[in-house]
Amino acid sequence: MRKFFQEIKADLKFKTAGPGQKLSEPSRAPKEKPKAEVAPKPRQAPSDEAQRAAAAALARLELKPKAKAPSGSQETIRSHVRKELMADAAASEKELSMEEKEQEEEGAAAPSVSGVYFICPLSGAIVRKDQKEKQLREAIQAYFSVDPVAASIMEIHTFNRDREKVRLCVETMAKYLDNIYLHPEEEKYRKIKLQNKVFQERISCLEGTHKFFQAVGFETKTLPVPGQEATEEFYVLKEEVLSRLEELKDRKEQLLSSEPVRAQLHRQLTVFQPSPAAARFELPHDFFNLTAEELRREQRLRTEAVEKAAMLRTRAMREKEEQREMRKYNYTLLRVRFPDGYILQGTFYARESVSVLYNFVREALRDDWLPFELLGPGGLKLTDESLAFNECGLVPSALLSLAWDAALMADVEAAAEQEQRSPLRPELLARAQSLS
After folding, report:
1. Mean pLDDT, to the nearest integer, of 112-134?
2. Residues 6+ apart with CB under 8 A from 428
3. Banded pLDDT at 317 (limits 50, 70, 90)
4. In contact, 436 and 398? CB cutoff 8 Å
5. What is the largest distance, in Å, between two alpha-carbon atoms of the chain?
6. Rounded Cα distance, 117 and 97, in Å
7. Which residues are paired to 126 by β-bridges?
8. CA distances from 38 to 34, 66, 178, 213 (A)
9. Is 182 exposed, middle or buried (0-12, 13-18, 19+ CB in 10 A)?
10. Which among 149, 173, 358, 394 counts the fewest CB atoms within 10 Å?
11. What is the CA radius of gyration of the chain?
């Protein structure tokens, strides 16, 4: 990102110097004593973050009220764009991790994907892994204006991690509602003491529960406690809710049957033109359970002990260690090379089954009925589609090959007069990229 700033500044004020030449002086500036020659650094394409920042800046510029400037003032427009670009680039630079900055400074190879991304099922927004919970919270919060009961149920099931506590919580809450539905004439069932031990231990401590009670029609009241001089706070059901008991029953069923709202892994489907670099992968740190520093340390220790370990480990020990290695990866980046050389790439969970990859490939085909097989590294056929990627050794990345059914190929060769065409969908081929 720092290089992106320097390039913008250079475009505004200076001419680019060629190899072995002095930098030209700024226009309209007095001559100064020439400085020592410095070979310019080669330019690099702006990073993904910079490009997204630029696109966001241009989009906001179109939405802003137009400044009062002389008609056709291109310099004024450029000035606005430059300011937006620089402001967004500065914001994006702050979000870069230290590892990404180190890679950029050291001139590391560009990652095969910029990160792991998710799709929010409520808003449809695509966000990075570290932003998915924030996006879910914002989307659920926005849904309160549409259906506060449903939104509060989403909070209960989504943001309380202990599933056993959630189960116990919703069953207790459902019991409260069921008592009201079955005994609407009983006033005692329409009141819940907030300091009640069961309410405190099972319900009050979980996120979203109070919002639910308020949304279904409870209000907070301070009431006297029978047999005591002190008063306590209660949830009391509003009288008008008694005329909508069937709705209360439906809310209870909704509370019991709901599931957590989960962001969906974005496959980042990409098609590459034929390339000899298909087997080269550069993965971002999002694909690993460990931090960058932990990965470097483990790699160093593994390198130092590799020969000793090879001599002392039994086969069982090696298999156990391999399984432990596989658990370090949350995601895997898979490429499938077609017979015509085109490459299909997608991001998957490391524990997803091989059947998911078959479906992924099938959805990219022009004719999804065509039978095919997938071959892993070394030509091994992936026949057991129930196996997970990490069980097949296809993590954190792998290049596979697609092979058509032999009988199908014979039919194709027999009909050689037909026009040969790529099996991939035309809209995917139109977006095919170069793999460097």
Report:
1. 93
2. 269, 271, 344, 364
3. low
4. no
5. 97
6. 16
7. 119
8. 11, 42, 80, 70
9. exposed
10. 358
11. 30
Amino acid at 184: P
Distance between CA 303 and CA 289 in Å, rounded? Answer: 20
HSE value, Cβ hemisphere, 13 Å, CA-based, for 264: 10
C-alpha span between 19 and 11 (Å, rounded): 17
Concatenated DSSP letters for 400-415? EEEEE-HHHHHHHHHT
Dihedral angle sign, alpha carbons of residues 314, 316, 320, 323:
positive
> What DSSP string describes 67-124?
P---TT-HHHHHHHHHHHHHHHHHHHHHHS-HHHHHHHHHTPPPPSSS--EEE-TTT-
Strands 331-337 and 397-404: parallel
Tell me the three state secondary structure of residue 435.
coil
Residue 172 tokens, joined: 């207790």
DSSP code of residue 56: H
Q: Cβ(374)–Cβ(402) under 8 Å?
A: yes
Three-class SS state of 152: helix
DSSP-based three-state secondary structure for 288: strand
**Dist. CA 295–CA 270, nearest whole Å:** 28
Residue 192: enclosing H or E segment and its boundaries? strand 191-193
36: tokens are: 């020592």
DSSP one-letter string for 216-256 = HTEEEEEEEPTT-SSEEEEEEE-GGGGGGHHHHHHHHHHHH
How many whole angstroms separate alpha carbon 177 and alpha carbon 187? 13
Give the pLDDT score at 362: 97
pTM over 0.70: no
Given a contact cutoff of 8 angstroms between Cβ atoms, the answer to whether 117 and 266 are in contact is yes
Q: Which amino acid is at 36?
A: A
Whether pLDDT at 126 is above 70: yes
The tokens of 371 are what? Answer: 């039978």
Burial class (CB in 10 A: 0-12, 13-18, 19+), 105: exposed
